[in-house]
Structure formats: structure tokens, C-alpha cells
Write a sequence for this structure.
């Protein structure tokens, strides 16, 4: 009878340790964040757990250096870079508690050890849950290199009318 009691006590102690480790990992995952700044320094994005945008800072120069569509693309690229940084921190946190052969990125994507054929929508189409589509890069053009801001030119056009 004492052997059974000792085994139960040992199992309960293991359970409590596992539960505390899970709580610790959950706290670390909740604190994950990523930050990125655009190459020209005009956009800074911060994302929290799960890649949620928590802060976006645009310098005054952002409006002068970039036309609206270029600035929008720069913001998207900067947020994506911040999200990738946060995702890497998430994978690092999870890798400390997962079995060695488990891919943290696949686990977060929801595919774990499934093969694409196992989560295919139909016989020909699959979903890549772990990757976001690459955004096309907006090249700097002559409009972007002009000294006059697009905002200033819009105001001038309105005043002339």
C-alpha cells in the first residue's frame, strides 16, 4: 500500500512540475514581441504575441520621402519583419519544451507533423499555414526622389485651382 501511495505522490509531483513549466512557457509566450525599423528609419513597427501590431511609429520624413502607396508598402514590409522577429522568439521559447524532433513553426501553424496532403483542401490544392505570401517590393522611382513632398505638391495644386 505504501508503494502505491509513493507512486501516486511521485505522479502528482511530476504533474505539478509539468503544470508549472507550462505556466512559465505561457507567460514567456505572452511577453513575446518583435520590433523592426524600415531601412530608411522612417517607419518603426512593434508586434506582440501572435504577431498583433501593438505600435506603429512614422517619422515626419516618412510623408515627405514616400508617396502614399510606397509608404503603405514600406509599413507592410516593416510590420512583417517585426512579426517574423516575434515568431522566431516564439519558436525559441517553444523549442525548449518540445521534443527534439518537433518543429515549433509547424506546431504554431497548426500542421505539427502533418504532411501537406493531410491538410489539403482538395486533391489539387493545399494550404501553407506557416507562411505568409511575400509582398512585392516597391522600388524607389523618380517621384520618390523628388525634393518636393507629394503633400506639398497636392497643396500647391489646390491653391492654383
Amino acid at each position: 500500500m505504501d508503494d502505491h501511495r509513493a507512486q501516486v505522490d511521485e505522479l502528482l509531483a511530476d504533474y505539478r512540475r509539468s503544470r508549472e513549466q507550462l505556466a512559465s512557457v505561457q507567460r514567456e509566450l505572452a511577453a513575446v514581441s518583435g520590433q523592426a525599423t524600415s531601412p530608411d528609419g522612417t517607419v518603426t513597427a512593434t508586434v506582440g504575441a501572435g504577431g498583433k501590431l501593438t505600435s506603429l511609429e512614422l517619422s515626419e520624413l516618412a510623408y515627405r520621402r514616400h508617396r502614399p502607396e510606397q509608404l503603405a508598402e514600406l509599413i507592410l514590409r516593416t510590420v512583417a519583419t517585426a512579426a517574423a522577429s516575434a515568431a522566431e522568439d516564439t519558436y525559441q521559447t517553444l523549442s525548449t519544451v518540445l521534443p527534439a524532433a518537433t518543429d515549433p513553426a509547424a506546431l504554431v501553424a497548426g500542421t505539427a507533423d502533418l504532411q501537406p496532403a493531410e491538410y489539403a483542401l482538395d486533391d489539387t490544392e493545399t494550404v501553407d499555414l506557416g507562411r505568409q505570401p511575400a509582398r512585392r517590393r516597391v522600388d524607389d522611382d523618380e517621384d520618390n526622389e523628388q525634393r518636393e513632398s507629394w503633400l506639398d505638391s497636392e497643396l500647391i495644386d489646390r491653391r492654383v485651382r
User: Anything to note?
Assistant: Helices lie at 2-30, 60-65, 68-95, 104-109, 142-145, 150-160. Confidence is low (pLDDT under 50) at residues 126-138, 140-147.
